[in-house]
Design a protein that fits this description.
The complex is a heterodimer of chains A (361) and B (226). With 361 residues, chain A is of the alpha+beta class. Chain A has 8 helices and 20 strands. In chain A, the strands form 4 sheets. In chain A, strands 7-8-9-3-10-11 form a 6-stranded mixed sheet, sandwiched between helices. A 5-stranded antiparallel sheet of chain A has the order 2-1-4-5-6, covered by helices on one side. Chain A has a 5-stranded antiparallel sheet with strand order 16-20-17-18-19. The longest helix of chain A has 18 residues. With 226 residues, chain B is mainly α. Helices cover 77% and strands 0% of the residues of chain B. Chain B has 11 helices and no strands. Chain B starts with a helix and ends in an 11-residue tail after the last helix. The chains are: A alpha+beta (361), B mainly alpha (226).
C-alpha cells in the first residue's frame, strides 16, 4: 500500500500547520477537525497550491513531491482536486469541463461515457455551468477530477454547500467512484456523519497539528482519543442488513451475530452498512430489562471505564468484535459498582441508529 | 477623392494596424504581470503605462523627437541596424503611437485579467494545465471581449492621434502624413471642402467603431461567440 509521508510546516494568518505523519493511501482517508484546524491548508499543501517551509517534505509513495526546496509543480502531480465551490470553468460546457483534465493528464484508460453514467450526468453534457444546481455542479467537478485519471484524489468539503438531497447524490457518486476505481482519496470534512459513512481511515486535526489518526472503526471505539470526549462522541459499528420488517417500517442489521433494529433503510438484504451510535444514547443495565420501549438491548462486556468529569463517566463496551461507547452519569456508575470485565446489557435508543445514513427521511 | 486623401487613409490604417498588433503583443504580458502583482514596482510600471492619458501629446512628441535625432544613442543604433533615419519616418510614428496608445490596450486587459479568479487557475493546474496552458485555455477565453475592446480602442486612438505625429512625423505625404495631419493641412490652406470630407469621415468611422463595440455581447459565458 502506498503512503503519503508528510513532514511539513506552513504558516498562515491564523495558525501554523505543522505535522509529521504518514497517511495510508487505501480507500478513503478522512481529514477531520473543526474549522480553522488546517484541513484545507493541508490539502492545498499536498496539492502543491501553497508554498511551504524549506524543511518541508512531502512524499507520495516513492516520489518526492516536495523536498529540500524542490517542488513538483501542481500540474505534474496528477491529483484530482474537488473544491468546496466546484470551480467549473464558466466558458466551457459540462462535457468540455469533464474532458479538460482527461485531455491533459488522462491516459485513456477510463471511458468518459462510463464515468458520465456513474455520476448521472448524461442529460447535462451540453449545458453551461451556470445552468446547473449546486449538486449537479459538484457531480460534474467530481467527474472532471476523476477523468483526469489522478493517482490521488483530494476532496475539500465537497458536500458543504449542498442541500440534503444533493448531499445524498454526491455522497453516492463519491462512493461509486471509490468502489469502481479504488483511487485513494483524502476527504476533508468537519461533518462526522459524512466521515463515518465514507472513510476507512481518519486523521483528526486540531490547531494545525494531528491530534490522532487510525482506522475509523477502531479509532471511534476507543476512549483515549479526543473525539471520544466530544459532546457528540459516537462509536461506529459495521453490520449487514439481515431483514426488513415492512409492517413496522424497520430494518434489522446483523452486527457480529447480534441484531440491531433501525428505521427502514432502502437497501438490499446482505448489504454492508455502518451504524453510528452516539455515546449519549447508550445506557447499561445488569439484567436484561423487561417491559421497556427500547428495541435494541444487546449483551456487551464492559472493557474500560473513564471518568471524564465529576458528573460523567465514559464506558467502552465490547459487542462481538466491535465496540460501543456509553456516556452515563458518575452517580449511576458508582451506584451500579461497575467493574471492567463485567457482562452487561446495553440499551440503545432506536432513534440513535437513524443517524446511520444521516439523511433518513 | 484626391490622391493625398487616399494616401493618408492608407497610411493611417497601416499605422493603426501595425500599432495595434504590436500593442497586443506587448500589452498582453504587461497587463498580465500587472494584474497578478501589487507593490511599488508594479505601481511604477502602472504610472508609466498610464502617463500618456494625461500628458499633453506634444510633450511626449517633443521628447521622442529628441530621442529619435540621428545623433542620439537610439537614432544611431536604428541607423546602423536598418540603414535608415529614424526621425520623420513611418517607424518613428509606430514607436510613438505604441507609447501613446499603450494605456488604451493595457488597462482593459489588466482589468479583465484581474477579474479571472485565481481559484479557476488553481483548478486548471490540478487538472494538468501548465501556466501557459492556463493562460491560453482559461484566461484568454474569459477575457475575449476585453481583447476586442483593447484592440478597438488601441486602433481608434491611434487613428485619432495628432500631437505626437505632428511633432515626430514631419508631415511627409505617403510616409508620415496621416489623416489627422492631412486635415490640419487642408484647414491651414483654407481648403474646407476636403477638410469637411475628412472630418465627417473620421466622425462616422469613430461612431461606427464605438457602436459596434458597445453592441457586442458583454457576456463571456461559453455560448457566446464573438
Amino acid at each position: 500500500m502506498t503512503e503519503l509521508a508528510l513532514a511539513m510546516r506552513c504558516d498562515t494568518q491564523d495558525f501554523t500547520l505543522s505535522l509529521n505523519c504518514g497517511i495510508p493511501l487505501n480507500g478513503i482517508c478522512a481529514i477531520y477537525g473543526p474549522s480553522g484546524s488546517g484541513k484545507t491548508t493541508l490539502l492545498e499543501s499536498i496539492a502543491g497550491l501553497r508554498s511551504l517551509d524549506e524543511t518541508s517534505h512531502i512524499r507520495f509513495g516513492n516520489i518526492d513531491w516536495h523536498n529540500a526546496g524542490y517542488s513538483v509543480p501542481v500540474w505534474q502531480r496528477r491529483i484530482g482536486f474537488v473544491f468546496q465551490d466546484a470551480r467549473l470553468f464558466p466558458h466551457l460546457s459540462v462535457v468540455q469541463n469533464l474532458l479538460f483534465g482527461a485531455h491533459r493528464t488522462g491516459r485513456g484508460e477510463l471511458n468518459p461515457d462510463q464515468v458520465i453514467d456513474w455520476l448521472g450526468l448524461e442529460d447535462l453534457l451540453h449545458r453551461g455551468p451556470n445552468e446547473l444546481s449546486a449538486g449537479q455542479k459538484q457531480r460534474v467537478a467530481i467527474g472532471r477530477a476523476v477523468l483526469s485519471e489522478p493517482q490521488l484524489m483530494l476532496l475539500d468539503e465537497p458536500l458543504a454547500n449542498l442541500d440534503t438531497a444533493a448531499r445524498t447524490d454526491c455522497l453516492q457518486a463519491i462512493r461509486s467512484v471509490q468502489e469502481k476505481l479504488a483511487t485513494p482519496m483524502l476527504y476533508v470534512s468537519h461533518d462526522i456523519e459524512e466521515i463515518c459513512q465514507l472513510a476507512e481511515h481518519v486523521v483528526v486535526l486540531e490547531q494545525g497539528a494531528v491530534r490522532e489518526q487510525g482506522p475509523l472503526i477502531e479509532l471511534f471505539g476507543r476512549l483515549d482519543t479526543g473525539v471520544a470526549h466530544e459532546e457528540h462522541a459516537a462509536a461506529v459499528a459495521q453490520g449487514q442488513i439481515s431483514k426488513h420488517d415492512e409492517a413496522y417500517g424497520l430494518t434489522a442489521i446483523d452486527v457480529d451475530g447480534h441484531t440491531l433494529w433501525v428505521n427502514h433503510l432502502v437497501s438490499r438484504v446482505g448489504e454492508s452498512r455502518r451504524i453510528r451510535i452516539p455515546a449519549r444514547d447508550v445506557s447499561v443495565c445488569r439484567e436484561r430489562p423487561a417491559g421497556t420501549s427500547i428495541l435494541n438491548i444487546l449483551p456487551v462486556e464492559l472493557v474500560e471505564i473513564e471518568h471524564t468529569s465529576s458528573a460523567r463517566v465514559l464506558l467502552r463496551l465490547r459487542l462481538g468484535q466491535q465496540y460501543l461507547l456509553a456516556r452515563i452519569t458518575r452517580k449511576s456508575a458508582i451506584e451500579l459498582q461497575l467493574q471492567t470485565g463485567e457482562q452487561l446489557f446495553a440499551q440503545i435508543k432506536s432513534a440513535a441508529l437513524l443517524s446511520d445514513t444521516g439523511k433518513t427521511p | 477623392m484626391s490622391e493625398t486623401i487616399l494616401n493618408a487613409i492608407w497610411l493611417t490604417v497601416a499605422l493603426a494596424g501595425t500599432t495595434t498588433i504590436i500593442l497586443l503583443l506587448i500589452g498582453t504580458p504587461v497587463a498580465w504581470w500587472l494584474s497578478r502583482r501589487q507593490g511599488t514596482v508594479s505601481a511604477v510600471v502602472e504610472t508609466i503605462v498610464a502617463l500618456p492619458l494625461i500628458l499633453p501629446p506634444t510633450v511626449l512628441g517633443f521628447y521622442l523627437l529628441i530621442a529619435f535625432a540621428p545623433d542620439t544613442l537610439l537614432g544611431r543604433a536604428w541607423q546602423q541596424l536598418t540603414g535608415e533615419r529614424l526621425a520623420f519616418s513611418f517607424s518613428a510614428l509606430v514607436i510613438g503611437s505604441v507609447i501613446y496608445s499603450l494605456p488604451f490596450v493595457v488597462q482593459p486587459l489588466q482589468q479583465a485579467f484581474s477579474r479571472v479568479p485565481a481559484s479557476l487557475l488553481q483548478a486548471s493546474a490540478t487538472l494538468g494545465a501548465t501556466p501557459l496552458d492556463q493562460f491560453r485555455c482559461i484566461v484568454l477565453p474569459l477575457s475575449r471581449r476585453s481583447f476586442l475592446v483593447a484592440a478597438t480602442l488601441g486602433f481608434a486612438h491611434t487613428v485619432g492621434e495628432f500631437g505626437v505625429v505632428l511633432m515626430i512625423g514631419g508631415n511627409i505625404p505617403g510616409e508620415t502624413q496621416v489623416l489627422s495631419i492631412a486635415l490640419f493641412d487642408y484647414v491651414e490652406s483654407l481648403r474646407f471642402h476636403e477638410a469637411h470630407q475628412l472630418a465627417a469621415g473620421l466622425v462616422v468611422f469613430s461612431m461606427l467603431t464605438l457602436f459596434l463595440l458597445y453592441r457586442s455581447n458583454p457576456e463571456a459565458s461559453w455560448r457566446v461567440k464573438l
